[in-house]
Amino acid sequence: MNRQDFRAHALDGAQLYFQPASGVHVRVATAATATLRRRAPRVVMFGVTNACNLACAFCSRDTTRQSAWTVETAAAALRGLHDAGTLEVAYGGGEPFAFRGFAELVAELDATTTLAQHVTTNGTLLHDAMWARYAGRFGVVRLSIHDGTPWRPAADTLRGHGQRWGANVLVRRLDLDRLPALLAELGAAGCDDVSWLSYVGPDAGLHLDAADDRRLSEIVAASPLRSRASVCFGDRLSVPRLFSGDCGAGRDFLSITPDRRVQSCSFQEISLPGATADEILEAWRAQQPALLGPTSRRGCARALPLAAQPSPPSPPPISIWRSFSGNNSGECFLVARFHDVADAERYLAELSPGFHPGEPHSPEWRALFTEQQVGVAPTEGDHLDAPRELLAIGRTVLAVQYDAGDALRHLRALAWKRGAAVVPGGVHVHEDVTLLAAVRCRDDRDRDDVLTTPWAPGARRHAHGDVVFVSLPVLGHESPVPTLAAARDALLTLSAGRPLAVELFFDEVLEAALLAAKRHLGHAPSQRQRLSIVFWGEDRHARAARMLQLCGAQRTTVCDSLLLVDPAPDRKRLAVLAYRMGGSVAALDGEELELGVSVWFDPPPVKKGRRPAPRGVDVRDLEARLRAALPRASTMTIVKPDRPWRPGADVTVRTTLPGPALDALGASVAAIGAQHYPWVRDVDPIGAALRRLRDDVVGGSGPGRQ
């Protein structure tokens, strides 16, 4: 397998010669090649996993899909495509470096094929110690750079190991003035080239207009780095194109999804079976009409006039260029419920100086966060951005921003410090976000008016006494409410001066679940103030140990890097301390909690080029251990999930004694030598949200009284 040799790949009416080692392409289009036809896609964009340690709202992947590839099945499919004529594979997802066995997959294909392998990554999982397993095996590594992604450590690792790397930059209107400085910074960091990505989706604020296209064209023309524009730009930019015509999705390249399906590109809704090379090739050969259609998402180049050109200009007889193909792979929310409207307004007023939506933290914000000692101290290297929206609806403050991690951790900590109750969740949210609201009416007639007034499409309204509950999908691909400000304005119109309370629920709210929660609002479950704190990263256990000293071992249970503080009457203080140490915090209010673990065994190492069968979890043995160890006031379910990429067991426990239950879970998993990921949450989050909203508008305990 010599990557210096050129591989021949038939195109429609042309012959392509590709050198995997260098990325050099030679395209010959003469009378002698006129009858040639493609036999395989030139490139596959391979979603090796749907798992990701980040959550970017513009991410095009469907987060409900399973991660079904294993090292063996992925290697077999890609070898088959290689043998059929495919030249390159660009790994994406998901985050490829989150795929267990990724190094083994890359090594096996490096040894058994001449595929040029590339990877697109957010870079946050790259470090010097692990790179030896990948050294020399990627043509190019592409770092996704957007909204505070900490790309510099990854760039240093790649540059230090001599790995060619490029940058994928999503271009938004508010980014244009910053792009020249970013280009200079990328060049100084050793970046080889920049790919400009066009946003494809529903958010009108992220699309460029004609003037923005001209500005971007000027920036590209003056770039000190080699630049290339995403095919989704079509002919909108006044920059040279390698070839005119259609973007090639579904014909020149295919997107293979983590659940082993075939799509023309990652933005496309239509998918076909693709678990093996034969299935992938059959879909590619037999389903061209389906694969060549445009996506319904706004921004697709196939919806532009470019796609309608009946006869694009012919390319020259011989073309030579050098490039490797790339693959480009969601929201961060704050919901802070203050004691009253005045408190919420004071919080916003404190942040008003220096608030520039979507821009890096201003000097005023950095000084404020440092003075108040909230969150990890921001430095010039953080590149944290302010939320693109920060507003109040009544006494609830809402914020949203794209980010590689928790862009709003300083705002969360400051809200806790200022007396708010910060609603759990909101970090790494991809799709479904529902705005829940309660409107208190004067009487039955007034309630009927609120229920029947024409309002936002997709909204649901349900009466509960003199309160009307509202649920409205927001910010999603199909939502009629594209911004928090639009949601605020719509709610203010509906409430028309009536008492109003709102929250965001970070998932889809099904009608049946909402009705079931509403039916049980008359039953007030017992309450107990607790706090969960989770740390991530390689030093998570060390940070958890330091946090344990601050919380006190007598009331704190530790399971892996999760701490459960019980009771936590001082959880406002502890939340600020946890954010200062880089933790994630969730307030828990119910006497009964739901907790659990995902349990698995790491795959064994490859021996003599073969991977032994992974060790499975003995569910009966684990169940017996847990039933003997769990507190009696507990109910347990244990299932073996359909998760080929990480077989194991998922355990869920409901209990009023979560500390002893977590101890039992951790000890039982340790006894069998397995890996585990623990979690804890309130039992009925929708019901809890409805109770909070009802209490807010009828004069209950109030969100700040804890």
Tags for this entry?
706 residues; alpha+beta; TIM Barrel; Alpha-Beta Plaits; 4-stranded antiparallel β-sheet; globular
SSE order and pairing:
Elements: E1 7-11, E2 14-19, E3 24-28, E4 43-49, H1 71-84, E5 88-93, H2 102-112, E6 116-121, H3 128-131, E7 141-145, H4 152-160, E8 165-171, H5 179-188, E9 193-198, H6 210-221, E10 226-229, E11 253-256, E12 261-263, E13 272-273, H7 277-286, H8 288-291, E14 318-322, E15 331-337, H9 341-351, H10 363-372, E16 389-393, E17 396-402, H11 409-417, E18 421-422, E19 434-440, H12 444-452, E20 460-464, E21 467-473, H13 484-495, E22 500-505, H14 511-519, E23 527-534, H15 540-551, E24 556-559, E25 562-565, H16 571-580, E26 584-590, E27 593-600, H17 619-629, E28 634-639, E29 648-655, H18 658-672, E30 675-682, H19 685-698
Parallel strand pairs: 4-5, 4-11, 5-6, 6-7, 7-8, 8-9, 9-10
Antiparallel strand pairs: 1-2, 2-3, 3-14, 11-12, 12-13, 15-17, 15-18, 16-17, 19-21, 19-22, 20-21, 23-25, 23-26, 24-25, 27-29, 27-30, 28-29
DSSP strand (E) fraction?
15-25%
pLDDT averaged over residues: 82
Amino- and carboxy-terminal Cα gap: 67 Å
Remind me, CATH topology of the largest domain? TIM Barrel
What do these coordinates show?
- It is built from 19 helices and 30 strands.
- It folds into three domains: 7-322, Alpha-Beta Barrel (TIM Barrel); 331-525, no CATH class; 593-682, 2-Layer Sandwich (Alpha-Beta Plaits), CATH 3.30.70.
- The N and C termini lie far apart (67 Å).
- Strand 9 (193-198), helix 6 and strand 10 (226-229) form a beta-alpha-beta unit.
- The chain has 706 residues and is an alpha+beta fold.
- Residues 305-312, 378-383 and 700-706 have low confidence and may be disordered.
- It is globular, with a radius of gyration of 27 Å.
- It has a ten-stranded mixed sheet.
- Helices cover 28% and strands 24% of the residues.
- The longest helix is centred in the C-terminal third of the chain and has 15 residues, at 658-672.
